[in-house]
Task: structure prediction
Amino acid sequence: MQQHRGQSVHRGASQILNVALCDADSDNLSDAVENAGLNGGDGNRDSVPDSQQANVTSLVTAPGAQATLSSASGASLLEVYSADLPAGGTKPQGVSFPLGSLGFGVAGSTVSAVRVKTLSAGGAETITRYLPPGTGINTYWAYGPTTDNSQAHWYEFLFDGATGAEIFTDRIVLHLTDGGRGDDDLAANGEIVHAGSPGFFTGVAVSPDQHDFGSVEIADASSFQTFTLTNLTTGPLSIGEAVLSGTGAAGFSILNNACSGSAFSAGGACTLDVLFSPLAEGWKEALATVSVSGEQAAVSIGLSGQAGLVHPFTLTVVRAGSGEGTVTSAPAGIDCGSLCSAAFPSGENVSLTATALPGSLFTGWSGACFGKTLPCVVLMDRSRDIVANFGQDIAPVGTVVINGGDAHTTDPAVTLTLSCSGVTACVNMAISNDKDFSSQYGTTLFSAQQATGAPDTSTYGDRNTAWAPQPKNGTKEYLTLEFATPVYADGATIRETYGNGFVYQVDALDENGELHNLWVGTDPSQSGAPADFAISFPRTGFLTNTIKIYVDTDHNSTTWEEIDAVQLRGYTVAERFLLNVAKTGSGTGRVFSAAAGIDCGDICFGLYDEGTAIVLTALVDAESIFSGWQGGCAGTEPCSVTLSGNTSVTAVFDASSVSACKKGDLGGDGIVGIDDAVLALQLAAAREASGVFICADANEDGKIGLEEVVYILQKTSGIRP
Result:
């Protein structure tokens, strides 16, 4: 899953920077992803990070599941990816795939400029996939074409003495031959391509094995989805309890369950229904697990749905600037002018169009439409505020004709027009304004516009193809440039071509127009030749496409200070970090964060954007106490951690002599009271409430929610004995 560095150039520029995220071993997975893998990024435990070895790779393959692949011969692993189980073929009945599916390529025999491929055409290769503990894996299935079926399909891929999977407690060893069984390209071409997944036999088939209920509003309910369980064994089976688990389990209900508590013979079947009725907004996922008698593994059913708000979100438009104009929306609702605020359904895409009145110009968006062009399309997944900026359009009295390149003027007596001599003559021509500047030596030559686009001043000296401020000495000047693509910035390069060494500060504007300092210091660039002054700084936690460069004209009393071009570096997506939660101590309990999807329990880690603030809450089981946090948190109160790197947090639960808590006694003090109702309300609303006794669950559904609030209030009022 390769990510790319952000592209950021000034409007009208002819060159774009495109730098890939670090992938040291060229396996299609960034170093950050591999470093978050099994055993701290050393899944094969050879004391060498997997991200630095072309023959070893680690990644997340399914929620809560990680995998490490290792090539025995040292062959390079290429294009490694994790994917949803393929839909292009019938899934094997009675087999569960808890660890997700993987695809990869193994390099072949030829030598290229970028890597050495170590296999000979038709050669054999052994790939080891390391497994997390306790998976119960007892089979392996491949997905792809075979010599007897050219269409991609599932087939069991067990070791037959030449090719196939050998299954051990902690690993699977895949024996592959170039062009043989398991090589999806079926050709002895020096490259092995393979996709497949470890699994276990359940003895019971379920149809369908997963269902997405689509979008359902809070407090509303979906239609029933019926699931059919079929006995694939040769003898009778008894079906046990059906249990819901996962962060979204509270929004799903199992009804009309004709399976649990029943026995059915070989080939027999039973059904159960599931309903989706969400209690809080957002994407919800859960797992329905049905236990089966004997040595058969439990059956799992994947459930998902989108919970939308009952009420719509509000879109507000503000007009700003010295000019005048209107903003309208599609669908209708905004006509600003007069109607500048309207409500739209959750999930609606609203298109906004700004139209300047005579004598005015539309100069751009701020707020939720920052960096977008006309029209701006905004997704109403929350309330949004948008600013439409209008400036004055001063009627020109002169004309400049451009026959190529780009041009700029701030002189109200001049207008710019394009003149094209051929069909493609205007392809790279542009009329654009720099964002702002303190002064410029000329309105065309030596203007601020000369600092935009790619470098075009090849020699040192006083050259009119670079920007120069009006004063030569004695002032502090600045130049502000706007780039085409907003990025999370982490660096900039300033091309200095005369009087070098004059930059003393660089700032950036965020999407709300607020100025942030990026760098302050001494510019070491030496005079005598054009110099690229490169600065680096911690990646911004906000998107920016505008930087402000501060220039000291007193730096050199004999020269002007001139800038030919500026490059902004960064990422178009925020950096992601791993939060890993662990539990220790002589007691038991859970750690959860409703907003972040942590429920540890089962889901003890997640990847989140840089700067994400996550609140972790500790829930205590009976005869245990919460003793506090270790690692990224401290104390005993709810822990709020803001991610600026990979972070580990440990919750300490210790055994206690306190007897098992009562239903509704969330505080564990032996009394069911109003304070317990407050704790239940906090948890139902995904608020912080550490030290809660989960054993106080009133309806024994494994969760604390509104049912417990009602139970406690009935108990304290005497309605319930």
Remarks:
- The radius of gyration is 32 Å.
- The chain has a mean pLDDT of 75.
- Residues 396-426 form one domain.
- The first helix runs from residue 31 to 35.
